[in-house]
Amino acid sequence: MTTTGAETGLPSASLATAPVAPVVPARGARRMLGLGEVTITGGFWADRQRVNGEHTLSHIGDWLEREGWIANFDLAAAGGLPQGRRGREFSDSEVYKYLEAVAWEVGRLDASDPARAAELEQRADAVVARVAAAQQADGYLNTMFGREGQAPRWSQLEWGHELYCLGHLFQSAVAWQRVRPTSHKEIVEIARRSADLVLEAFGEAGIQSVCGHAEIEVGLAELGRALGRPEYVAQALLFVERRGHGVLADIEWGRSYYQDDIPVREAVVLRGHAVRANYLAAGAVDVAVDTSDEDLLTALVSQWERTAERRTYVTGGQGSHHQDEAFGEDWELPSDRAYSETCAGIASIMFSERLLLQDSGENVARYGDLVERTLYNVVATSPQADGRAFFYSNTLHQRVPGAVSDPDVVSPRARSALRAPWFEVSCCPPNVARTFASLAAYIATADASGVQVLQYAPARIATELSPGRAVELTVETEYPARGVIRVRVDAAPSGPVTLSLRVPAWAAGASVRTITGDETPSQSRAVETGMVSVTREFAVGDVVELTLPIVPRFTAPDPRVDAIRGTVVVQRGPEVFALESVDLDGTALEGADFADLFVDTSVALREVGSGVTAGVTAAVRRRGTSEVADVPLVPYHSWANRGPSSMRVWIPSS
Amino acid sequence: MTTTGAETGLPSASLATAPVAPVVPARGARRMLGLGEVTITGGFWADRQRVNGEHTLSHIGDWLEREGWIANFDLAAAGGLPQGRRGREFSDSEVYKYLEAVAWEVGRLDASDPARAAELEQRADAVVARVAAAQQADGYLNTMFGREGQAPRWSQLEWGHELYCLGHLFQSAVAWQRVRPTSHKEIVEIARRSADLVLEAFGEAGIQSVCGHAEIEVGLAELGRALGRPEYVAQALLFVERRGHGVLADIEWGRSYYQDDIPVREAVVLRGHAVRANYLAAGAVDVAVDTSDEDLLTALVSQWERTAERRTYVTGGQGSHHQDEAFGEDWELPSDRAYSETCAGIASIMFSERLLLQDSGENVARYGDLVERTLYNVVATSPQADGRAFFYSNTLHQRVPGAVSDPDVVSPRARSALRAPWFEVSCCPPNVARTFASLAAYIATADASGVQVLQYAPARIATELSPGRAVELTVETEYPARGVIRVRVDAAPSGPVTLSLRVPAWAAGASVRTITGDETPSQSRAVETGMVSVTREFAVGDVVELTLPIVPRFTAPDPRVDAIRGTVVVQRGPEVFALESVDLDGTALEGADFADLFVDTSVALREVGSGVTAGVTAAVRRRGTSEVADVPLVPYHSWANRGPSSMRVWIPSS
Fold first, then answer.
1. What residue of A is the nearest CA neighbor of B423?
2. Can you tell me the ipTM of this complex?
3. Which of A135, A255, B236, B336 has its CA 20 to 30 A from that of B134?
4. Looking at CA atoms only, how far is residue A331 from chain B in angstroms?
């Protein structure tokens, strides 16, 4: 760690004062504001963060102990492997993701609840010490390989997940490095030693192959950024470039499963396993950016475009296949077999957010739109209200009510059931946890001219546009229940500053006005979708107020999506709504066959209640009868919280 | 073999003169006419039988050798297992199915080409000798289990397929027993010894479990019938009754995968793995019939009803899931992920045909309809025109043209590709082969009062309704190209005889007339769909002529099937048609995006050409343009015979 940012091409800001954020590229159009700069102070996401911090983290920690996935490291240290090992080949990674989640949570609580932050840090340190004890002298770290009775190191790249696990270790180390930049955390040292070994084993002259599950790319690149080690970024680039040339074995589903069919820079769309594809794309953006590889970046942008248009559910979910957890072909988006893995949604956010940071301006809002859509309708859908059970896949159509999961039993991921406490493959719970804990970093970005507010939540934002040019903002909103977003200036430098806000693609009819102390409020002006900006010399107390039309709306599907022809979806703001059979109770349609219902789109959707509890009702009819009922729809993210139910997002309209 | 039919409750006809047919129940409303009684003399199915006999059988025999699946038996005999073993755990069964196919082919050729029949028999005998050498002293026979270095016998019932393999051995032995009832074929002795061991191991006091893949039930029941061993039928009943009580381990997809979730007699619909479900149902009909268990039979009839209505594709295909090769829920029938495994179609025919033999009359035609639909649109679809490559699954919507399979390379079953020569799991090719070779047995049934013609092909039928009451018929038809079916009487007993013909459910407007030598032809009379019968004292030369309306028709989907809302399918007679992108070439739509096309249903379908080469064209339009073209549609069974193509069966109609 003797190199400095200036020598490495990394940002000239000291590594020790990098934003407390998951992505800090060497260059870019705008930078993420980190956890020290943004605090979510209330509303939808603050609730999620609170439940995550109070319940989910300990829930995950408990299950990791209970299933022996942390104890695997103890066994490794004590010579108890392979006999005593429990869990699948990638179980180490869940421990790393948990540690990453705790890091961000510590960062989130540092200012508001330092006692709790210290307690969490101590708990994480104890786990890290157990991981450290398992690391071998040369830096090798994996509980599944390399010992007597185990397969040799790097011998099963297709399915072994060794490099995948390290990628998660590196992301975890990055989080701790940024949250505690001066503390010399042990996990950072573990990661550094492992990364050095990876470079030795897989460098230019090393094993000419890649991991069957991309993740090391994004992990190595960010570790390189966080530690000022450009050679890590270079190794990530090597991995990105090697893939796609058939370096891995052909398998039943073809090499497209792990994106080894086509080189990244030649591909035109994401394909194969949806989590693998998005992790790879995110890592490829990282290396393209840090190496100024415009061709690669352009290729990734166009892959994002086609994937967003043709291979993404209305919820933001990705991956249509249960069999191989993979994207389907263009327009292959069946509701009833939507796999839409929670982790694929998170991975897609990682990909979108990285492009957002690089975009010259035109597409910033589109990336932000998909991030928002996916946050509300995939990531927020996964956890139960109590934060102790999760959807692994997120179907858009539940024909037969699923079974209630036993809160004390590990669930198979493929089974049709309500949210479950833990899975044999339990990637999703810690992935949700690390995303929620770091969510503040997705709220806003900044460049030298101002701040871009991209996701809406009550929040405090405090940053410097450049040394000495501090900006402090307070965001007040009841979003997504209501469409008014007020950005109040609490501090601003002299000279013009630009405040930009995202106007989502669904928000036709949005308007903005400026309210300042020394003049009457500006006339509200209509704004196009995209980014809207107000540039002026702001005074304390000035407000930029954006009003988005939060009204329920029907949306017809793209006619090329066969599976939902003749249906509509109800949305309000960023939220997708669902018809749940439990809501037929007490209506004229109680007990009706769910397959016989359709929505009468000639009857306007109606809002009932107000504020955050406002709901939407639709006129639902039963085929072959004159029966009709005004049926409440629920936000998709809150479905299946009232017991087993049939459910559909796309509702037949005739 | 000392028991006689009379003692065992089996038909009083001597076992040695049982019909040369796969299903000969102890009782029933009508009996299959066997290969000695029915010969298909020309047309669609005779072509398939010829290609099957001339090419497919040797193709299969060659691949079984090449992959070492027959050599596994040699290794077993020579002590070379487990080291040298090749193939999956169920590879023995493919050898048995091949031997069964050869048996039926020998039966088919006995009269017309005895030299070829003898040659085939000799070839089969040689393979059987190799199988025999692998059988252990106590009758145990499986190349995967029980030796040093292998898992113990019966230790992996969930996935081991030991009993499944034996079920296929038994069906093969049944075929040889019926084709060569007096020859004491070695395979019959092998099967008898294996069956006796199964009874010892799994009898009342034996292992209280079942095989993860049903098949032993239908095999044991028929072997019991063929050899006059009612205890085999009783054992099959034990297996049927045991299943459904959670006797097998729970697995990721749940016990419904192998029908161990609900007892057969309590189930309301087929579910889980579609081949397993249908094999089980077929075996359950067998034991229900032979033990006069009306409750069980009633349950199976109602399972068939719901499955046919709600879980069956328009092609007759069953099984919507790639992941677990399973049925979906009711109405879950996506075209683009239709698995519709060839073997599931064959298994469904086995189930339907067994119910047909038992039905009191009302539903005979409906069972025959589904058999026909499945034969033309699943079984006939699988093999390539040359009989040397096969579809494993039968999608109804190919978005992106599949890859051409290398005729020299084993294919993974799940890959989107054209027909392939052989698969790692190669159940389908020999299953198709045994079905084609025995197809004559599905043409007609008989009871004491007459003959029921159920499937239409040029054929000669000769049987005795009862001792001394011989009937001989010639069926003349160009079906399915043309709808006239003439059944000419070549011999008939004195007294009234009933000739019955199936009028398919799609054949509204069908008519029948009788043409006799001594009177003017009877007035053609309109007949309802179902079975139509003519009862009279027939003279030689009399003709019953049925005319079915073979005209192309649009059919709209059931509105409860989400995946095909807003589409139509084109059918003509029993054939389902498909739109194939290669047929856009040379039209105004050449090069158009396949996803943008829809059919203009206001323009009548048009027949072009005549006779067996007659085709159908439809007016196809391109969304967002005024482009339109008259595009030929192809029978679904012949799609993908002209290279890679996009294809769809259900075509958007707006």
1. A252
2. 0.90
3. B236
4. 8
